[in-house]
From TrEMBL:
Superkingdom field: Eukaryota
Cited InterPro entries: Ribosomal_protein_uL29, Ribosomal_uL29, Ribosomal_uL29_sf
Annotated Pfam families: Ribosomal_L29
Originating species: Elaeis guineensis var. tenera
Subunit structure: Part of the 50S ribosomal subunit.
Biased composition (Basic and acidic residues): 169-183
Protein name: Large ribosomal subunit protein uL29c
Subcellular location field: Plastid, Chloroplast
Family listed: Belongs to the universal ribosomal protein uL29 family.
Length: 183
């Protein structure tokens, strides 16, 4: 609760006990607490270097969480082996296709069609892995960051716009359906 009051400046007392009113009275701000007897001693939280904060917490489920992580890691390693087996041109083509698929997913989302939201992160991670392998190869060839960006810019300008594989598949299915109707 806040109360405004009027207080006078420190007065210079006259011999008769009257204050001189040379300046007008100024408002002062007083804060009145609804519970004047309660004062908080809370001054924030101190976060120190605690060893317990660095160790992982045990799983709430009975020890089944660790095995799934190993399986995911194995799948990721397997996927990286597949990506590394491809040529740089194949990687570039697949990156273009995946980016097109990502755009199609965004369109499905904006049209409020059914889609798997997990596909967004899966595709972005796959694209990132491919670009990482591409950059690793550039580093092996001795291409520095600046030249790499210049080459990347040139590559992006040379991309020919084409529909992603899922859209091409739908178009082929539509053409097949129209051919069946016409015969």
């Amino acid at each position: 609760m806040i109360a405004l009051g009027v207080s006078s400046p420190p007065s210079s007392s006259s011999p008769f006990g009257l204050a001189s009113f040379a300046s007008p009275p100024r408002p002062s701000l007083r804060i009145l607490s609804p519970f004047p007897s309660l004062k908080s001693s809370f001054h924030g939280i101190r976060i120190g270097n605690d060893v317990r904060a660095l160790t992982p917490l045990p799983s709430r489920r009975g020890g089944g969480g660790g095995g799934r992580m190993v399986v995911r890691m194995a799948k990721r390693e397997e996927e990286m082996k597949e990506i590394r087996a491809k040529t740089t041109e194949e990687l570039n083509e697949e990156v273009i296709d995946l980016k097109g698929e990502l755009i199609m997913l965004h369109l499905q989302k904006s049209a409020r069609n059914e889609f798997k939201s997990s596909e967004f992160s899966r595709m972005r991670k796959r694209i990132a892995r491919m670009l990482t392998v591409k950059r690793e190869r550039e580093i092996e060839q001795g291409i520095n960051k600046r030249l790499s960006r210049k080459l990347d810019k040139k590559w992006k300008k040379s991309i020919v716009v084409r529909p992603p594989p899922s859209l091409r598949k739908k178009q082929e299915e539509q053409k097949a359906a129209e051919a069946e109707k016409s015969t």
